[in-house]
Design brief:
By secondary structure, this protein is of the alpha/beta class. It has a single domain, classed as 3-Layer(aba) Sandwich (Rossmann fold). Helices cover 41% and strands 20% of the residues. Helix 1 packs across helix 6. The N and C termini lie far apart (51 Å).
Length: 292
């Protein structure tokens, strides 16, 4: 397969995934949401459109989801949904900004119902915006009633390079744990980096690279859920290579291999296995963020 064929194939796969999301919503008359439902999630307290930084000509905002009946008297742990696509790309792919995408909104509500806050945000420059968001949360944690010393991250698919490079390439970030679903992981020696770069220019996701494995941050536990039936070309191959390096460096990594899982399994595989994996993810965050 030559590079142009690879780009076309990946584009078709990702387009079909986005088309399927819309088709599911159209057929069921419901917005696409994660497979798990928890008591109280629809009663989450939501603070919408809180400014977190100013770009030329615009102010970027975030939404914060709190547990139902949260009294705002003590700070709680928080999970940030890290984005690697720009909002402009989101509008083309899913018809909205990612912070307004019902799939991610449901994840935030699930997290809130589990006793943690959740944040999703606008972005025009994903690599720099996550740094700005991190600083804003540090400076405003008392106002927001979140505990940045107990902050975790969630990321999936082609959003992954932005999150994992920010967390593993530096020991200065403040995230304490990271959960990745069917993530695209780009290491310096990945064979298809040029083709992925070409695709990213077309689709709007960013492709920062992980540095040398010996320099990876070894303090942050990582949960990776691998979709065994993932049909995005070379995604699992790239993860397999990363996982071997992570073990070689003795990183605190936990692997769940969902052998029958599709790319986007938390939406498409609506079954008990998917729900158990989402529960395991919540437990991973609770354990590492010391949620009682």
């Amino acid at each position: 397969m030559n590079s142009s064929d690879l780009v076309r194939l990946i584009f078709v796969v990702v387009f079909c995934l986005q088309f399927n999301i819309k088709t599911v919503a159209q057929q069921s008359n419901k917005e696409p949401v994660a497979a798990l439902k928890l008591p109280g999630m629809e009663n989450a307290i939501i603070k919408n459109d809180i400014p977190y930084q100013t770009h030329p000509g615009s102010t970027l905002k975030m939404d914060v989801y709190y547990p139902p009946k949260f009294d705002f008297k003590s700070k709680i742990p928080v999970i940030v949904v890290v984005l690697g696509y720009t909002d402009e790309a989101g509008k083309k792919l899913i018809g909205s900004k990612f912070k307004d995408f019902s799939w991610l909104v449901s994840w935030c509500k699930i997290t809130a119902a589990s006793g943690m806050a959740a944040i999703v945000y606008e972005t025009v420059d994903p690599e720099n915006d996550i740094r700005s968001l991190e600083k804003h949360l540090q400076l405003n944690q008392d106002k927001l009633m979140i505990d940045v010393d107990r902050m975790g991250a969630f990321v999936c698919s082609a959003h992954t390079p932005t999150a994992i490079t920010h967390i593993l390439n530096s020991s200065n970030n403040i995230f304490k744990c990271l959960a990745i679903y069917y993530g695209m992981i780009l290491t310096q020696d990945f064979e298809f980096l040029p083709q992925i770069d070409t695709l990213s220019l077309k689709m709007g996701f960013k492709t920062p690279r992980l540095g040398d494995s010996k320099d990876w941050n070894k303090k942050v536990p990582v949960l990776f859920v691998r979709a065994g039936l993932d049909n995005v070309p070379y995604l699992n191959q790239a993860f397999n290579n990363f996982y071997a390096k992570a073990l070689d460096q003795n990183l605190p990594i936990t692997l769940i291999n969902y052998s029958n899982g599709l790319h986007g399994f938390d939406l498409y595989n609506d079954n008990d296995t998917t729900r158990q994996i989402i529960k395991a993810t919540l437990d991973f965050w609770k354990f590492n963020l010391h949620v009682k």
